[in-house]
């Protein structure tokens, strides 16, 4: 890797933080309760019909305990609820409450405005190309290389 050149994961992380920071600021300006980046991410990967904590953790790339903690906080805030899983007596589905759906709709509006702002800054074509590249199937992560030597 070139010295001083940021890696692609660093650049993607910075881009993600740009959106998260702006979204959190907009929600705070709206008077919404403060949430963390992890809680934002959880909202983003949640299915409309409900999702198990284990599946949320997998989609977020975090531990089950981290996902559970985020769910618990959002349940306490009244944004999520836990309901019985229709095909498993041992599992619960996590889904948005009416207040959670309103918050999700507002976040979607803000993200659309942020995408338009980004297009004004770097060009609509660049944003479209970025989206197209990120939507390509990357496949499973590759196996780690063998030991150097």
From TrEMBL:
<protein>
    <submittedName>
        <fullName>MarR family transcriptional regulator</fullName>
    </submittedName>
</protein>
<dbReference type="InterPro" id="IPR036390">
    <property type="entry name" value="WH_DNA-bd_sf"/>
</dbReference>
<dbReference type="Pfam" id="PF12802">
    <property type="entry name" value="MarR_2"/>
</dbReference>
<feature type="domain" description="HTH marR-type">
    <location>
        <begin position="5"/>
        <end position="139"/>
    </location>
</feature>
<dbReference type="InterPro" id="IPR000835">
    <property type="entry name" value="HTH_MarR-typ"/>
</dbReference>
<dbReference type="InterPro" id="IPR039422">
    <property type="entry name" value="MarR/SlyA-like"/>
</dbReference>
<dbReference type="InterPro" id="IPR036388">
    <property type="entry name" value="WH-like_DNA-bd_sf"/>
</dbReference>
């Amino acid at each position: 890797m070139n010295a001083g050149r940021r890696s692609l994961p660093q650049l993607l992380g910075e881009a993600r933080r740009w959106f998260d920071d702006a979204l959190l600021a907009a929600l705070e300006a709206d008077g919404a309760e403060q949430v963390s980046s992890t809680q934002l991410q959880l909202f983003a990967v949640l299915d409309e019909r409900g999702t198990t904590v284990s599946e949320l953790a997998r989609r977020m790339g975090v531990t089950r305990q981290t996902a559970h903690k985020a769910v618990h906080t959002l349940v306490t805030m009244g944004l999520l609820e836990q309901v019985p899983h229709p095909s498993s007596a041992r599992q619960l589905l996590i889904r948005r409450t009416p207040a959670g759906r309103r918050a999700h709709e507002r976040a979607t509006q803000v993200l659309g405005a942020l995408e338009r702002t980004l297009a004004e800054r770097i060009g609509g074509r660049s944003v479209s190309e970025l989206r197209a590249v990120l939507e390509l199937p990357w496949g499973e992560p590759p196996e780690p290389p063998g030991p150097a030597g």
